[in-house]
UniProtKB/TrEMBL annotation:
UniProt record similarity statement: Belongs to the CYRI family.
Keywords noted in UniProt: Lipoprotein, Membrane
Domain CYRIA/CYRIB Rac1 binding: 6-262
Topology term for the membrane: Lipid-anchor
InterPro entries, alphabetized: CYRI (IPR039789), CYRIA/CYRIB_Rac1-bd (IPR009828)
Protein name, UniProt field: CYRIA/CYRIB Rac1 binding domain-containing protein
GO biological process per UniProt: regulation of actin filament polymerization
Length: 266
């Protein structure tokens, strides 16, 4: 998708540079739009978490059943988040092309060459976009940071309200995936992928906001069961999700982590 920076074999060839610039500008526009979209997603996440965790309830499952529409929107955000990051990791040239754009734009400004347009990115925004795409899983980091921020800004809200919602969603996804009665109702493999991504997404958010994380013995998430569900899928379809648990969680390498769980992820 992003190969413009590799297209210039001879930097002195002005025609090739013009072609590369013409190709990279609209792609940078897309990168900018996805970055801006991530900011809107974080704001939506705060609103959803506020609605899903604001009430005191005894049964998180019943609470989510009453708020099915909001829970579905939350799940849709997590599905998009994991899917976006999977695609981002298969496009390593993104950062190279964005760096090329910034270098070329800087030279054009020095030489007073006009570069105005709807896709132009100023230095401050370019720095934020660069930091965003520098992360291996940028959307997931935005969601994790957003959930952590939500908890820290709502200290009057019991943290259990948030962690119970997340652990319950993980449990619901696991049961749907491992129970033949439910699994047989899935209309396509896309539905399976949806449930898998949502399950992994809520596990990671839980791990960020719970004091001891998702992998400790006291965790309300059945991590052994969730990992088994992932392992039971075709390997090519879940390797990215297993890597997300291995490399983007907060507490996996803590001393409190169940050793069996750690070995299951190796």
């Amino acid at each position: 998708m992003f190969f413009c920076s590799q297209a210039i074999q001879n930097p002195s060839d002005e025609a090739l540079q013009d072609q590369a610039w013409a190709a990279v500008v609209p792609l940078v526009g897309k990168l900018k739009k996805f970055y801006e979209f991530s900011q809107r997603l974080e704001a939506a996440l705060h609103s959803l978490l506020g609605a899903l965790t604001s009430e005191t309830y005894n049964d998180p499952t019943q609470h989510l059943e009453r708020e099915q529409a909001l829970a579905k929107q939350f799940a849709e955000i997590l599905h998009f988040t994991l899917r976006f990051d999977e695609l981002k990791m298969t496009n390593p040239a993104i950062q190279n092309d964005f760096s090329y754009y910034r270098r070329t734009l800087s030279r054009m400004r020095i030489n007073n060459v006009p570069a105005e347009g709807e896709n132009e990115v100023n230095n401050e925004l370019a720095n934020r976009i660069s930091l965003f795409y520098a992360d291996a899983t940028p959307m997931l980091k935005t969601m994790s940071d957003g959930t952590t921020k939500f908890v820290s800004e709502n200290k009057n809200l019991p943290i259990e309200n948030t962690t119970d919602v997340l652990s319950t969603m993980a449990s619901v996804c696991k049961v749907m995936l491992e129970t033949p009665e439910y699994r047989s109702r899935f209309s396509s493999e896309e539905t399976v992928s949806f449930c898998l991504r949502v399950m992994v997404g809520v596990i990671i958010l839980y791990d960020y906001v719970h004091p001891v994380g998702a992998f400790a013995k006291s965790s309300k998430i059945d991590m052994k069961g969730c990992i088994k569900v992932l392992r039971d899928q075709p390997p090519n379809s879940v390797e990215g999700l297993l890597n997300a648990l291995r490399y983007t969680t907060k507490h996996l390498n803590d001393e409190s982590t169940n050793k069996t769980i750690k070995s299951m992820l190796q």
